[in-house]
Amino acid sequence: MRGAWRTIAAVALSLMPLFLSSAEYGEAAGTSKATKARPGSSPEPSKCEPPKFRIVVDVGHTPESYGALSARNDPEFGFNFRLARLITAKLKSEGFAATRLLVTDGKARPSLLKRVSAANDGRADLLLSIHHDSVPDKLLETWEFDGAKSYFSDRFSGHSLFVSERNPHFIASLKLARIIGRQLKEQGLTYASQYTLPLLGRYRHALLDKDVGVYRYDGLVVLSQTRSAAVLLEAGSIINRDEEMALNAPGRHETIADAVAKAMGEFCERR
Ligand SMILES: [Zn+2]
């Protein structure tokens, strides 16, 4: 697994000169001073034509600053890359020919604003940031995997969607997040409901749609400072031992990618 991830990361680095997104947990802590959105900088097209609709599928984190570590010690970046690449392919095959996969290298925090600037310069109509979830450190338990002390938490599972009210296209972002959430629900997937719990402390978020699991998360740079609509998808928990296995099996990522592509089609039709 780790070798495979290194290969993927190397390929990613060699292929893409691009920028990227932000993070959850510790890396999000530095984002509270996010500047105000710049309204009017990217007017929404009056209608959505799939071949011209510029979707940026952002691979969360970088090979060097890889995000969470799974219960079996695989970096989140590898999960994000695999799923984002699949989503990009599905979107293209559904007619969204202007979809781009966005991968960045370097350390997370210093690159945040640079990434957002670069994404904005690309005049995207939509940024979709792909992540996989973990839990705050205080909830971690230990086990032995592959002869090494490792960390897990089987307490929570599921996907979740995040949008920022500071995004200049908050309403459109929320609309898309809800459509994605509904598509995931129709596939029989259950969203992660723990973000409303006091136990989550500073990681608590307001639940904007309790039916399909859309949360408000204003502090994330990637959501609040992009000029396009922006949605962050936590595709599932890799710190949960069963869900990590499910996410490593090809079926789950296929299901999620299909749901996202279908949701984009529906979102576009409604505009
Ligand atoms: Zn992440």
Under the CATH scheme, the architecture is: 3-Layer(aba) Sandwich
The number of distinct β-strands equals: 9
Name the beta content range. Answer: 15-25%
Query: What ligands does this structure carry?
Result: zinc ion
Ranges where pLDDT stays below 50 over 5 or more residues in a row are 1-42
For the record, the CATH class is Alpha Beta
Question: Percent of residues in helical segments?
Answer: 25-40%
Distance between the termini: 42 Å
CATH topology: Aminopeptidase
Number of helices: 7
Which term fits the overall shape?
globular
What number of structural domains do the residues give? Answer: 1
Structure description:
By secondary structure, the protein is an alpha/beta fold. It has one domain: Zn-dependent exopeptidases (Aminopeptidase). 35% of the residues lie in helices and 17% in strands. It has 7 helices and 9 strands; from the N terminus they run αβαβαββββαββαβαα. Helix 1 (2-15) packs across helix 2, helix 2 (76-93) packs across helix 7 (250-270) and helix 4 packs across helix 7 (250-270). The model is unreliable at 1-42 (pLDDT under 50). It binds zinc ion. Residues 23-24, 60-61, 67, 76, 131 line the site of zinc ion. Zinc ion (ZN) binds next to loops.
